[in-house]
């Protein structure tokens, strides 16, 4: 199951590379994207996610919390919500604006809503990613990270013997 768009954006950073260029593939054909704004948004979301999850890992961004809040709020202001209510269905909210504004707005909703309580930092060795815990037994961002964590734990137990 894919992560929410703000988490997908946060996860375009790796310990050894900035994969923001690859981020555009999951954005799809959204028109022109300001990469500097996208990088700023990613840094802001990662900083706020670290606070929300009490992330013990070394920070990937040096952005302060006040700067992260200001950046997220400014970029969210680029999008606008619109309500549509078909006669034969429930009301729906749609967001309009540049991709960075839509993702920022979704980030505000994620961090201010119930999803924040399920947001997790992946604590597998050498992982810098985040995920939304949808299942009670999920502990890592991917099966690959779960395997790495179990192997590291096994190695530590047997190394001490």
Explain this structure to me?
This protein is mainly α and 161 residues long. The chain has six helices and four strands. The strands form two sheets. A two-stranded antiparallel ribbon has the order 1-2. Strands 3-4 form a two-stranded antiparallel ribbon. The model has no long low-confidence stretch (mean pLDDT 88).
Strand order of the largest sheet: 1-2
* Radius of gyration based on Cα positions: 18 Å
Shape: globular
* Number of DSSP strand runs: 4
Structural class from helices and strands? mainly alpha
- Please bin the fraction of helical residues: 40-55%
Sketch the topology as an H/E string, one letter per element: HHHHEEHEEH
Percentage of β-strand residues: 5-15%
Low-confidence stretches: none
Largest sheet: 2 strands, antiparallel
Overall mean pLDDT: 88
End-to-end gap: 39 Å
Treating each run of at least 4 consecutive H or I residues as one helix, how many helices?
6
Question: Brief description of this entry?
Answer:
With 161 residues, the chain is mainly alpha-helical. The protein contains six helices and four strands; from the N terminus they run ααααββαββα.
Layout of secondary structure:
Elements lengths: L4 H6 L9 H8 L7 H19 L11 H12 L3 E5 L7 E5 L2 H14 L6 E3 L8 E3 L10 H18 L1
Antiparallel strand pairs: 1-2, 3-4
